[in-house]
Known about the structure:
Blueprint: E1 6-14, H1 21-24, H2 44-47, E2 70-73, H3 85-93, E3 97-100, H4 105-113, E4 117-120, H5 123-133, E5 140-144, E6 149-151, E7 157-159, H6 164-172, H7 176-181, H8 184-197
Amino acid sequence: xxxxxxxxxxxxxxxxxxxxxxxxxxxxxxxxxxxxxxxxxxxxxxxxxxxxxxxxxxxxxxxxxxxxxxxxxxxxxxxxxxxxxxxxxxxxxxxxxxxxxxxxxxxxxxxxxxxxxxxxxxxxxxxxxxxxxxxxxxxxxxxxxxxxxxxxxxxxxxxxxxxxxxxxxxxxxxxxxxxxxxxxxxxxxxxxxxxxxxxxx
Length: 201
């Protein structure tokens, strides 16, 4: 998993509440279990017309935001079904950070497992960041995980909270498998000791 330390990137505004996982990645794209290639389906129902052509009015289709790596979104982001394809699609498109006032629990947990940083802020803070994000190509925001700060284009800084263990895993780029592999010596020692004490098992 790619480490998340500091990200300075264009932030795209999505002032919509209750963006569910079906909006993030529609069910038509759930036939694969690969984590790559899903970026094309990200927000597909808003991003494309029925004939498959780009919807020029959708924020991520506009030149200013086509390379956005941060989303500033409305309340309750990632609600709905528990599909892990949602963070896969965000990451495959290039989104590394989502900022909102709240997230659905399963989506929030899945973000950390896939190298995406979900940040919870207050409504006042979100309003300020949304205003920053609406500046088009000038909407560059810096997110520093080590210092737990978000810096806007005007130099203002917002502090955010994060669970320490999740923070460390993102900083080190360790997913669930990586965490288990990091305990390989302890696991082997336990298995050897268990085999000696229970040779009949």
